[in-house]
Design goal:
CATH topology of the largest domain: Rossmann fold
Number of helices: 6
Number of domains: 2
Shape: globular
Distance between the termini: 64 Å
Helix content: 25-40%
CATH superfamily of the largest domain: P-loop containing nucleotide triphosphate hydrolases
Oligomer: single chain
Strand content: 15-25%
CATH class of the largest domain: Alpha Beta
Radius of gyration: 20 Å
Length: 204
Amino acid sequence: MTTDYDPEGDHVPYAIARALKKPTLTELNQFGKDSGLFNEITVKHLGDKLGDPFQLQVKMQHNSAEMSVNLTDVGYGISQSLPIIVQSVLRSGSDFILLQQPEVHLHPRAQAALGSFFVRQVTANNKRFVIETHSDYLLDRIRQEVASGRLMPQQVSIIFLDKPGLETTIHHLSLDDNGNILDAPPSYRRFFLEEEMKLLMRGG
């Protein structure tokens, strides 16, 4: 049986509402805690019948207290990451899941947590991802997962696009058992190294 998913994520609230005590909700809450975005997602039913309205409630930490707010009242980081988690969990392991910049609107800790989520899906559920990303935090977390032994380096393929002039060069990079990037061109992360050197020189 196949399921049609709305590309805008409109199906996500209904999928979450049906996912209580199932892997989808477990992964959502795990990501929420790892990322620091929220503590828990719950469903508030506004009626007794199956088709009655409902609200998705997000439990968040505010100072020392926990508060629940409607999903529609939280920031883009939470509302846009939920479709990624739900879609990834619900998809069959035989499918390729294609994602474009899933880190958008997420702070660094949440971007890293997203990397760990992808690794869990690969290792536990045989999911396959093709991810276009600009996030060093996401990639570095995947490298850490390889270094920790939770992911095999052969399970990761990195394609780095470099455009020193008018033409784009494609570099195929790999990882070793310690998560180190192999065969990286000199231009890889050159900008960040140059920025760091400027700071060091000013500090000296």
